[in-house]
Amino acid sequence: xxxxxxxxxxEQAYKLVVASVVPRPVAWVVSxxxxxRINAAPYSFFNAFSDNPVVVGIGCGRRPPGAVKDTLANIxxxxxxxxxxxxxxxxxxxxxxxxxxxxxxxxxxEAGLTTAPSLRVKVPRIAESPVALECEVFQFVPAxxxxxxxxxxxxxxxxxxxxxxxxxxxxxxxxxxxVGRMHGRGWYARTTDRVEIPRIPLADWESRKK
Length: 210
Hints:
This is Flavin reductase family protein. By secondary structure, this protein is of the alpha+beta class. Helix content is 20%, strand content 37%. The chain contains six helices and 16 strands. It has helices spanning 10-20, 70-78, 91-97, 107-110, 173-176, 202-209, and strands at residues 24-25, 27-32, 38-43, 46-51, 54-60, 62-63, 67-68, 80-85, 115-116, 125-126, 131-143, 146-158, 163-165, 170-171, 179-181, 188-190.
C-alpha cells in the first residue's frame, strides 16, 4: 500500500515512519548549561553517520508551542554533550528522564541515577550507562521543526567487562544488552535476539553464479 506524503498530514507521515523505521538506537543525551546545571533526555532520532571524523547525530524537536528544548539550548550554549546508550538494566530509568519536567529539574536525580566525569568534555556521563560518547558540536542542520545536532565524538567510555581486548579495540557487544526504540509510545526491543549474516565478497558471489 502506498502513502503519498505530499497529500497526507505531516503528523500521519511521521507516524508511519516511526512505526516502520525500527529498531532505532536511543541516544540518552546529557547536556549542561553555562551555569553547570545538568539535563538528561532520550532521543530515538539518532545514529552514527561518519567514520573520519566519527560523527553522530540526534534530531532535537521543540517544546510546544515552539520553545527550544533544554538539550538543544544547552548544546548551543556550550558546544558539548554526551550520548549515553541505554541497556535493558536502565531502560526504566531512561523512561523517567523522558518525563516533561519543568526547566531546571535534574532528570538524573529524579531517576535515581548518578554521574561520572568525562574524559575530554566538561559534561559528565551517566555512570549507570555501559557506553558514553563524548561529543563536540560538528554542525547544526535545520530540518523543519527539528534541529539535527551533528556531534564529533572525541572520546568514548565502555564499561570494563564489555571490552574483550582493549589493545585490538574488540568489544563484547552482546554483553552491553542495549535496547532500541520500536513503534508507539512505549515499545522497545532488546538486542538479545540476533542473527549473523556474513558479508559476501564479490569473488565468492561470482563463483556461486557459475
